[in-house]
Amino acid sequence: MQSCDRRFDVQQYLTREESAAYLSAKGLKITKTTLQKLATVGGGPEYVIFGNRALSAPEWLDRWPSRNLSRGARPARRRNYLASLLCFAPTNKAVPGT
């Protein structure tokens, strides 16, 4: 049997409530229930289960927002303008014969 050299230090992990406070203090306003939902549907920060608690390490919480950032979309006015230039503007006109 192989022994595991990793030491589990519960002091280095945060509960979901503590994780929400940690992320909020860094400017990402998020609640404990949102973290619970993300754990269910996917897309949340990494965590481990210890007993009946989900625990996250601060470095996992620091990495999580950067994995989920996306480039912002163009404003709707700009998209509509570009679509009109390309003759792809949506219309509500019925097509004859349909």
Strands of the widest sheet, in order across it, are 1-2
List low-confidence stretches: none
- Note the gap between the termini: 73 Å
**Number of DSSP helices?**
4
Order of helices and strands: HHEEHH
* Tally of distinct domains: 1
* Percentage of residues in strands: 5-15%
Total beta strands: 2
Largest β sheet strand count, sense and barrel closure: 2 strands, antiparallel
Q: What characteristic shape results from the CA principal axes? A: elongated
Percent of residues in helices comes to: 40-55%
Structural classification: mainly alpha
- Average pLDDT value? 78
Radius of gyration: 23 Å
Plain-language structure description:
Helix content is 42%, strand content 6%. It is mostly helical and 98 residues long. It has one domain (11-85). It has a two-stranded antiparallel ribbon. A hairpin with a 2-residue loop joins strand 1 (48-50) and strand 2. Helix 1 crosses helix 2. It is elongated.
What secondary-structure arrangement, pairings included, does this model have?
Layout: H1 16-25, H2 32-41, E1 48-50, E2 53-55, H3 58-68, H4 76-85
Antiparallel strand pairs: 1-2
Helix pairs in contact: 1-2
Key features?
98 residues, mainly alpha, two-stranded antiparallel sheet, 42% helix, elongated
Can you summarize this structure?
The chain is mainly α and 98 residues long. The chain has 4 helices and 2 strands.
